[in-house]
Amino acid sequence: MRVGRREFLRRFSRAGGGALLAPSMAGLASWNCVSPDETRAATARRRNGLGANRYGALRPGQACPELHIPADFHCVRLSVALSPSPVRRDLAVPNAFDGMAAFALSNGNVRLIRNHEMVDRPENGRAIGSPYYDAKCSGGTTSLEVRITGSGTNLSVELVDEFVSLAGTHVNCAGGLTPWGSWLSCEETTNGHRQGFDQSHGYIFEVPADATGPVDPVPLRDMGRYIHEAVAVDPGTGLVYETEDAWYNPDNLESQPGAGLYRFIPNRRDALAEGGRLSILAVREQPNFVTARGMAPGTTVPVTWLPIEDPDPASAETDSVTVFREGLSKGAAVFARLEGAFAADGGIYVVSTNGGNARAGQIFLYRPDGEDDGELTLVFESPSNAVLDSPDNICVSPHGDLVLCEDGGGDQFIRCLDREGAITDLVRNPASMGRTPGEFAGGCFSPDGRVLFFNTQGGRDFDDTVASVTYAMWGPWSEASG
Fold it and tell me: Stretch 425-434: mean pLDDT, rounded?
């Protein structure tokens, strides 16, 4: 029997221990009752019935016509790759913008720290600054300082400074911010000497928000060497949760056995370079539980954490899932391509970009219960690409919405979702002449909640001429909230 949306939410709240979901998560959970064979037209009608497009129809932006945004909103380009920075003419802005976070500066401005997911081969790579970790790698991070002035229709967003803050790293995809004011930048590769590089890769690097130039690049080896994606720090305990972007293929488990969800306990809360202990999530009394297929939305399972004895194996260079294989041998749970992560509702949400029976995406909530125990709930599983298409970067807005950067096919979207399940198309990057535009990434809000920053990802190779762009967008958020 099909369960109604209100009944599902009532049951889910009970399954979650009675705690209320963040408004946006309640709305996302409501889509679990949608039939997987619902047509795109039916989904569009359902969205409209829930009040979708509450910001209005999208149209080309006045200052950035390449993007379609709501009519009452404003959007400007802050930074464009492959050209000199307008505020530092000696800086050729690196390409491949990806994950990003926003911090409040003491002078009232906003610091953005932005990843560069460059994938160059060692013969093409070159460090974007100094000191660098590996001279043959062109990834890293840049930091931007942004000034926001005025209000309402007179609000203005201006780039004040832009500089390299981490150099010589490889395939910096996502990451996460810390409660002590830094950005954790993750390498989504385990390449190294055998591939021709000068250093081993597959690590997390920390960049303080108050850095004013390239930091000393220190690989946080105890946090694991694998295909890192995102991290989320529990603000209460300082524990760091890490996602792994590895594929699950039940027809080829030898080379694609899946991904793990990891937890790092630092020796000292705000000093990750001092080391710590890495562990991997497992479902109690169900070794190698597969979350990626056949797990009913709303299901909660008891979980625990298993120690990873060798977080930095040399063999990761030729087998990127070496760390996960150790976890599997002990009974670790199996996920599919874990990407986004964030802390909310007394726990950690993690996003599987192609998990679920429809391979269209899942969102899980882990809630701790004691030192090594907890519960894992499948909050949402997309029944089809018509509902949600491969969610990637994800954040919760100050206005109670969930903001999702999709990584699907055709037109690229940033969408937001409220507690009632209304999915609003917030930004569209239309496909043209058979070309699929680069994915959206790095969505984050200014600390005061007035401005949404995000990236479009251009080329990721040294000789690619498609430029990435960082945008700032603002408008009447509160008038359409709730």
Answer: 83
CA pseudo-torsion sign 29, 33, 39, 45: negative
Q: How many Å apart are CA 407 and CA 357, to the nearest integer?
A: 18
pLDDT of residue 16: 38
Q: Which amino acid is at 458?
A: G
List Cα–Cα distances, 109 to 86, 154, 158, 399, 442, in angstroms.
18, 17, 10, 21, 19
- Give the pLDDT confidence score for residue 15 in this predicted structure: 38
Q: State yes or no: pLDDT of 14 exceeds 70.
A: no
Q: Which long-range contacts (CB under 8 A, 24 or more apart) does 194-199 make?
A: 194/317, 194/318, 195/122, 195/317, 196/121, 196/122, 196/123, 196/136, 197/122, 197/125, 197/134, 197/136, 197/137, 197/170, 198/122, 198/134, 198/135, 198/136, 199/133, 199/134, 199/137, 199/168
Cα–Cα–Cα angle for 362, 333, 277, rounded to 5 degrees:
110
φ/ψ (deg, to 5) at 326: -60, -45
3-state secondary structure of 134: coil
CA 94 to chain centre: 20
Q: Which two tokens stand for residue 6?
A: 């209100």
Q: What is the pLDDT of residues 216-248, one digit of tens each?
A: 999 999 999 999 999 999 999 999 999 999 999
Q: What is the mean pLDDT of the chain?
A: 89
Work out the pLDDT band at 423, boundaries 50, 70, 90: confident
